Amino acid sequence: MNELAKELAGRYGARGWHDIRKDLASVEVDAIRIRDVMAYLRDEAGYGHLSFMTAIDNIERGAFTLSYALRDHDARRGLIVHADVDRAEPTVDSIHLLWGQAWTYQREMREWFGIDFPGSPRVDEEFVLEGWEGPPMMRRDFDSLAYSDATYAERPGRVTHDPASHMREKLYPEAAQ
Amino acid sequence: MSEKKTIPAPLANEGLPPEERGLFCDAAPREYEPARGAWERFLNWARSESLWLLGFGTGCGAIELRPLMTSRFDMYRYGIQPRPTPRQSSVFVIGGYASVKTLKRIVRSYEQMMGPKFVLALGSCTINGGMYWDSYNTIKRIDQYIPVDVYIAGCMPRPEALLAGFQELKRIIKSGGGEGQNEYARNFDWYKANQKKVIKDWNMPDYNW
Q1: Is the peptide bond before A90 cis (omega within 30 degrees of 0)?
Q2: Which pLDDT score, from 0 to 100, does residue B1 have?
Q3: Which domains does chain A have, with CATH numbers?
């Protein structure tokens, strides 16, 4: 465990420090602490750049895992901060006051996963979809195929082959029999 | 002498706010009335030899239009050239998949094009959805929403295939086919119903002319 890991653990109860590469690590924190952690990392620890943030739908344990990828350009190291948020009631503090670009990501996550970031600018406006009425489509319990079948007209006669068996029959017909 | 024409009811344009409805056309599209005999044949020849396509790349297949334009495949030798606005175009190349958001623009551009107008649908996505067959936001067949004259299969079709498609379109036009515009006018209500079924936030005129 390095200094920063100890510091984060002591201050914010961070856990699970994991060195992915020599210059890249990840750490988990509680979602309620996310803004404090981000402010500390930006102002004290040197991680001045928010590369991106995204969410992962961990439906098995009923949580969205938010991932904030930070970069310290002077020390040439990166840190990914994970925070689990309850899938049934996904509300997280906005960090748009720390990094202006965050509100775009937050708007994206609001539309795609239904995660709310109260106070984030334009967070309730539509982002890439227009007139979308279905559930947030990046949630894993959203059935894309069923939605597509119900919504869009299909041309009959479409055939799908399993690539492996199709090529086996095509290239080695004697072996397939 | 004059035949009595049935004038269709004006369009409601319910997607627009009331103060804007007067700014847009409320007439449904009409069928093209061909000229007589040889003159129409001459017009068809002229149309087929100067296909002006709308420079609107609607999907990934639009990347095939660039080699088609430039020196190697050189579509200009066939009288095909891109135009920057639908008002000057007669051919719309649907470049592959069309998301609902793009479909809205496709419908709008198609309706703004001058008649007679033709549609080339490129790639398997326009035919049966292609690799986007289970996508939540991509339509599976374009001919439900606008009429299509020629399909060019492939993912992607090569520029040669596109040229073959253009030649086929020329043949259709010269033989007096290319009824897409008339089909659209005849089945306008059906096309509109299909379009409005997938475009949930209909905030444009019913006929974008």
Answers
A1: no
A2: 43
A3: 3-155 (3.30.460.80)
Sequence-distant (6+) residues with CB within 8 A of B66 are none
Q: Which residues contact A33 (CB under 8 A, 6 or more apart)?
A: A12, A13, A83
For residue A134, list chain B residues with Cβ-Cβ distance below 8 A.
136
**What is the predicted ipTM?**
0.84
Backbone angles phi, psi at B14, to 5 degrees: -70, -15
Q: Is the pLDDT of residue B36 over 90?
A: no
Query: Is 3.40.50.12280 the CATH classification of the domain at B46-198?
Result: yes
Name B197's Cβ contacts closer than 8 Å, sequence gap at least 6. A151
Q: Residue A59: pLDDT above 80?
A: yes
Alpha carbon of A165: minimum distance to chain B alpha carbons (Å): 19
Strands A77-86 and A24-30: parallel
Contact B189, B1 (CB under 8 A): no
Calpha distance B132→A152 (Å, rounded): 11
Mutation target to probe the B interface, by most B beta carbons within 10 A, among A148, A149, A154 is A148
Separation of alpha carbons B173 and B152, rounded Å = 17
- Which two tokens mark A62? 């009923």
The pair of three-digit structure tokens given for residue A171, joined into one six-digit string:
């290239």
Q: Does the CB of B137 have a partner CB in chain A at under 8 Å? A: yes
Q: Are strands B52-54 and A77-86 parallel, antiparallel or unpaired?
A: unpaired
Q: B82 forms bridges with which residues in the sheet?
A: B53
Residue that has been written with the tokens 């984030």 in this structure: A120
Write down the residue that tokens 């706010």 correspond to. B17
DSSP B11: P
pLDDT, one tens digit per residue, over A102-150 is 999 999 999 999 999 999 999 999 999 888 888 999 999 999 999 999 9
Task: Say if CB B150 and CB B173 are below 8 A apart.
Answer: no
* Tokens 């309850």 sit on residue: A86
Nearest by CB to B136, which of A130, A144, A155?
A: A144
Q: How far apart are the first and last CA of chain B?
A: 30
Which residues are CB-neighbours of A45 under 8 A, at least 6 positions away? A4, A7, A72
Distance CA B205, CA B209 (A): 8
How far out from the chain centre does Cα B185 lie? Answer: 13
Strand, coil or helix: B200: coil
